[in-house]
Design brief:
The chain has three helices and no strands. The chain is mainly alpha-helical. It is rod-shaped, with a radius of gyration of 30 Å.
C-alpha cells in the first residue's frame, strides 16, 4: 500500500465517523422527544386514574346514600374499598391478587355485606 491509499482510507473512515455522529445526534433527539412524551403520558395516566377512582367513589357513595342514611365506616373498610378500587381482590377466595377480569362478584358482595353490617351496628 502506498501513502496515497492509506490517506484515502483514513479520509473515508473519518467521513463515515462524521455520518455516524450525525445519526447518533438525530437518535438522541428522537429519544429526548420520546422520553418527554412518555413522561407526559405517565402524568396524564396518573391524573386519569385518580379521576376514575374519585368518580367511582362518588358513584359508590351516591348509591349507598340513596339506600340509607350515611353511617361512618371504619378505616379497615375504607382500606378494603380502596384496594378493590385499585384492582385487587378483597374476597376471601382471591384476597390480594390482581383482578384481571373486571369486577369480582364475591368482592362486591363482601363489601356490600360489610356495608350492611355497619348499618346494623
Amino acid at each position: 500500500m502506498d501513502k496515497q491509499d492509506i490517506f484515502k482510507q483514513v479520509a473515508q473512515v473519518e467521513e463515515q465517523l462524521g455520518e455516524l455522529y450525525l445519526e447518533i445526534g438525530a437518535l438522541k433527539k428522537k429519544i429526548i422527544v420520546l422520553i418527554e412524551e412518555n413522561k407526559n403520558l405517565t402524568i396524564e395516566n396518573h391524573h386519569l386514574r385518580e379521576r376514575i377512582n374519585q368518580e367511582f367513589a362518588n358513584d359508590y357513595n351516591k348509591s349507598n346514600n340513596s339506600k340509607k342514611t350515611e353511617i361512618p365506616m371504619g378505616e379497615g373498610y375504607d382500606n378494603l374499598a380502596r384496594l378493590y378500587q385499585e384492582g385487587f381482590h378483597v374476597c376471601n377466595v382471591n384476597y390480594g391478587s390482581l383482578r384481571t377480569e373486571g369486577d369480582c362478584l364475591l368482592c362486591l358482595n363482601f363489601l356490600r355485606l360489610r356495608d350492611s353490617d355497619q348499618a346494623s351496628d
